[in-house]
């Protein structure tokens, strides 16, 4: 797949959405690429009260409105992970796992990822007590003690959020005081369920499979102290120690500073003509939503002038003519990334799905095996609405009394071939929240043509020795889970011996207990090997090859 655009924006956080809005409003053909979740890191923020003109909102609501604004001016969106970028020449090429896209102008708004501290036990207990996202994993620590590591805005805000679940929250601040705004810090300092230790750092996390104890050092006195969970219980450590820019793949392509942040001028231009950067990935003093959207606006307006001047070059006459024709056509592209969260399928969502399903190569069956549980009732409602959309997707259900096999589990949504054979893809969950996209893509992958994969990945999938069962424990509020579910489903669609089963962990406490799951996504291979964190097709293949 190759798409031609005037501007390609990499990243759909506030900076990328702002750039898309301004560039699309200037009548340019704009594509926004996002690998995980529209809205970026800010979507995990439960309360925003310092965005001018908006008295109170949350990260998801604010960025969803930004996306809709950009879309209203014609910006297109695609869920795709950038694998490489060619910045040589007037026309740049962005290579993704969905194909290649080209444009004379690029905006890099790739943001940053949570920073790991490197204390003893951090890696070993990630997913089993050590976590980095309060929204994703907070519920797993209900009634437990929780430690929050960090003294910035995220640490203070997320510590308050975690009091909804935790019995007590202890904040470990390395400095003499919080480094964020006083109003934010005071909420944490004055909360009855929060205790703060200043000039203190974590040295070690330890346990016996689950997190049982931690060791700290008071740097003011030089004394060490420990915490040990009550017998038979565990506790949580949430690390909010800032972010690391997502720029390893850009090294040698654009100029970076010593910490990996992109260096730009006052117009957000990088060291490469036609390439601009915006948001938290840039060298800057303040990383907030308001500065991110400012960066995006500046980058887009500066890029507008650059692209206009570039099109005056005689050698780009053909390209300019092609782009102008595409703008005139104003083709609407249905994208599963545009779908709203929730169990019920709105009219707008049905219209988008109808376009997507019309391109399926084979008919597919979604079958619900249902019992008398509330989740089964929701599944049945979901199937009723999904079944009205396209003849290419047949929906049906049967009750537990009609089980085909004695050991058949339910309630479950099974994606089947037209003849009733298993594709290997199942959802032990109602595909709501962030999992709606992964469910729709599972259908797309099973029916064909499927998400593009590289020749190397296809070869590696073919070499897998089945049977392989992949269980993915998810939370519908987790922004990282869908990528792993999509990756597993893509592999299962390509290999008859691979099963990909997604479980909403809220309904399967026995799974949480059996595999000692304290963070999602959690991937279980053949009921044995357990790995945590977001996984791409390449990542998951590596895990399978090592199993």
Automatic annotation (TrEMBL):
Q: Which residues form the Thioredoxin-like fold domain?
A: 469-534
Q: Which UniProt keywords apply?
A: Flavoprotein, Oxidoreductase
Keyword field contains Oxidoreductase: yes
Recorded GO molecular functions are: oxidoreductase activity
Q: Which residues form the FAD/NAD(P)-binding domain?
A: 5-296
- What's one Pfam family here? Thioredoxin_3
- Mind telling me which CDD domains this protein's record contains? AhpF_NTD_N (cd02974)
Q: Which superkingdom heads the taxonomic lineage of this protein's source?
A: Bacteria
The record's section on Gene3D superfamilies has:
3.40.30.80, FAD/NAD(P)-binding domain
Sorted alphabetically, which SUPFAM superfamilies does this protein's record hold?
FAD/NAD(P)-binding domain, Thioredoxin-like
Q: State if Zinc-finger is listed as a keyword.
A: no
Q: Matching InterPro entries, A to Z?
A: AhpF_homologue_put, AhpF_NTD_N, FAD/NAD-bd_sf, FAD/NAD-binding_dom, Ferredoxin-NADP_redctase_2, Thioredoxin-like_fold, Thioredoxin-like_sf
Task: Quote the PANTHER family the UniProt record gives.
Answer: THIOREDOXIN REDUCTASE 1-RELATED-RELATED
What protein name does the entry list?
A: Thioredoxin reductase (NADPH)
